[in-house]
């Protein structure tokens, strides 16, 4: 949800859309600089969040951050920016910060993993009393983007000592684009069997539920409305009814109606459409445990 007008307005927009969980940007995602968060805005946000019942709430880190880079200047800037993202989320009482690991460019994969591990370790070590998590997002694998395989994600996580402050965000669009075929029942089962084997469901904290404009193994990150892309409806039906994930937030990052709408306090028709689609896929059960239509 947009934070236009101030962070508490994101909560109000979430309430209008009957959201159960929420993702926000605490700063402009395409800029390094961030405005300071006034104490009164932090207090208003936390009070609005508590009153709304929306939980958990996560932030998405800036797209500029690259903790896998070997470029000294970009690396230093990225580590500082990630630390600031975590501090802002901590102040707001958020579950975590969703982070794209970044691109390795010319750096060998193993070295890029080591760079990411050291960056994560430094940010968390400098905040020993914090609770906000860093949630590594599995990526579509465009170019030299890191995090497109479960093996890479596992290696980044396993290299950091502060395990309680790390988790994973899985994006359905990214999974398909990177080569995990969620479309068939067998592919869905195999994907999560592999995830459990390499990473573990205890580390999975958030889902991004987006359809994909591009097919499996395209390595192109292009979100589509639920059921209208290369995934179709069935993978989402399986996901929202999977008892292994019924406690996890599932967040949409689908296209909104128009940029000019974000200042308005009215429901976005495209958000309403996608949320309704997902809600309609949920199977209801009777008090005896049988499935209702």
Write a brief structural summary.
This protein has 293 residues and is α/β, with parallel strands linked by helices. Helices cover 38% and strands 13% of the residues. It has a seven-stranded parallel sheet. A two-stranded antiparallel ribbon has the order 7-8. Strands 10-11 form a two-stranded antiparallel ribbon.
Keywords:
293 residues, alpha/beta, seven-stranded parallel sheet, two-stranded antiparallel sheet, 11 strands, disordered C terminus
Provide mean pLDDT, rounded. 94
Tally of individual domains: 1
Helices and strands, in order, run as HEHEHEHEHEHHEEEHEHEE
C-alpha end-to-end distance: 31 Å
What's the helix count? 9
Strand order of the largest sheet: 1-2-3-4-5-6-9
Low-confidence stretches: 285-293
Question: What class would the helix/strand composition place it in?
Answer: alpha/beta
Q: In what range is the share of β-strand residues? A: 5-15%
User: If you compute it from the alpha carbons, what radius of gyration comes out, rounded to the nearest whole angstrom?
Assistant: 19 Å
What is the global morphology?
A: globular
Q: CATH top level?
A: Alpha Beta
Architecture (CATH level 2) name: Alpha-Beta Barrel
Count of distinct strands: 11
Largest sheet: 7 strands, parallel
- Enter the CATH topology name: TIM Barrel
Q: How helical, in percent, are the residues?
A: 25-40%
CATH superfamily: Divalent-metal-dependent TIM barrel enzymes
